[in-house]
Amino acid sequence: MSEFDINISYPTEQTAYAERVKRIILSDGTHTPKACVVTYGCQQNVSDSQRLKGMLSLMGYEICEAQEDADFIIFNTCAVRGHAEDRVWGNVGATKRLKKQNPRLLVAVCGCMVQQQAVADRFRESYPYVDILFGTQVTHRLPEFIYKRLSGGKRIVELALENGEIVEGVPVDREGKFKGYIPIMYGCDNFCTYCIVPYVRGRERSRSADRIIAEVKQMVADGYKEIMLLGQNVNSFGKGNDDGINFAKLLRMVNDVEGDFRIRFMTSHPKDCTEELLDAMRDCEKVERHLHLPFQSGSTKILTAMNRRYTREKYLSLIKSAREKMPDIAFTSDIIVGFPGETYEDFKETLTLVKEVGFASLFTFIYSPREGTPAAVMPDSVTRQEKGKWFDELLRAQDTIQKKYNNEAVGKTVRVLFEEEAPEDGYLIGKSSGTYNIYVKADKSKIGTFADVKINSYNSVLYGTQI
Ligand code: 5AD
Ligand code: SF4
Predict the structure, then answer these.
(1) Does residue 172 belong to any structural domain of this protein?
(2) 126-151: per-residue pLDDT in tens?
């Protein structure tokens, strides 16, 4: 048993609300009600949106892509950087006009952004046409919110951050038929000084291993070929549970599920990345040879200011150890450029680390101050323009590394999962477990299947042939 109250099935009162919503929205008989879900941010949000869609389908809505067609629009927002937030204000603002065209349109905003007090206040005061506003921990109550608003209630504002309960059994609409997400934990306790996530997603809590394994088995039976285990910090999975199952053990359990499928996971924090976990990766043939391990900065001084709780040396030793155990492993990372107090000398340490490791790809960000975080009040004397120059220097360095990395792939034989059609006619994009994207001549019907591929050449993209 977990210390948390884990409901085994979707709360019956929400199913009852969903039925009532259905009766209201289908009552005119001639109109098919449509709902549009607009998602910003990380995979966790994409996964949450799949649950929003699952609940909307349960209520009788047809999911649509265009906001103009919708009777219900929900914005699932991200607060990690200012840029994502700016887009939300503009896009939510545009619904005022849509409401004039379609008087039955309801607008909702949820996710990390609204969990900040100042943002919630601004929505309340300046966006009266937003009908429903709710935070990250009450997502499962969407049917209740829609019902209450549709039946004449006041605007709904529900922002409680309770930090405990994990609600299981929320219906999910996993769009893709062969790649799927499984959230394994929620929240974050790390409080990196630049990051808003611990304030908007609350404390870390893990699902029970039993529930996760049951979901994996179901997805494999449904034909899924790639399962991504999701959490802000998967390496601290299981800390609140009392069954002794940590992330390394969970990986082994997922690997033991029968079937031909791949396992990925995201995101790992270097401070919790143990030898036990690397051993589990090495031993589990279904786990991809890929580790996304954000280092954020190559300078120990900046890492300390970021409260990351590892040093440059510790990070490099982890990389070395992972390579010793899995010589073909690919690394990817997140980097922040221009953290308060960072000098060009500090930034150069990020550059040298990037060159030393040789990442398959990078997610790079210019530091964005987030109100309420410790870093937002740290002195920051470097201009945005200067940070932009460092950022470009980093991109150029990575571009050279990536070309070399891809050139070295030529001649290798790898197993790929065909994921989508390539921009070139007659080609599909196949993804190797080590993150290579390879263009291969193959029929569309092969999307969602595995194939062995020889990599033949590299010319902006990798090309290969099936063997
Ligand atoms: N500014 C810039 N980048 C940030 N990230 C998180 N917070 C910030 C911020 N305030 C980046 C980190 C993290 C990724 C998901 O987003 O690199 O790993
Ligand atoms: Fe943010 Fe750090 Fe938690 Fe990642 S580990 S979500 S960067 S606080």
Answers:
(1) no
(2) 999 999 999 999 999 999 999 999 99
